[in-house]
Amino acid sequence: MTSLAKSVAAVFVGGVLGTSARLGLDYVIPHGDDDFPVSTLLINVVGSALLGLLVAGIGPDARGWLRAGLGPGLLGSFTTFSAVMVSLVSLTAGNQFGSALLYLVMSVMLGFAAALLGLRVGHRAVQRRGEQP
């Protein structure tokens, strides 16, 4: 199997798993169109942290097909910008402008903080592996 074929297969499998996990969390933490989208916010913050961890801690040592499967495949399908936009549109359509603004700010700020945390944890893990004999 070629490197490209392995990467495509890994992205496919990761995509199925990430989408399934996202759907599962949406069932566990349901919200209506006019409710604050807690599950989408949680999914995107956790996904941001995991992607930061992947990039810094696992990515440099992992094979290309594994990085593709975990990054764009698993985490790319688990998190999604379009879900944020749909939630924002639903909140504003319900005249919940304050909640929409709060959700947007929280999504960006918490996503950024989670990605930064993931990067730092990943870098520390790489440094510790380097320090061990």
TrEMBL record:
One GO process term, biological-process aspect: cellular detoxification of fluoride
Record's subcellular location: Cell membrane
Signal peptide location: none
Keyword Protein transport: no
Regulation (activators, inhibitors): Na(+) is not transported, but it plays an essential structural role and its presence is essential for fluoride channel function.
Residues that, per the record, bind Na(+): 76, 79
Transmembrane segments: 40-58, 70-94, 100-119
Reaction(s) the record says it catalyses: fluoride(in) = fluoride(out)
Family, per entry: Belongs to the fluoride channel Fluc/FEX (TC 1.A.43) family.
Function in brief: Fluoride-specific ion channel. Important for reducing fluoride concentration in the cell, thus reducing its toxicity.
Record-given protein name: Fluoride-specific ion channel FluC
Organism of provenance: Glaciihabitans tibetensis
Gene: fluC
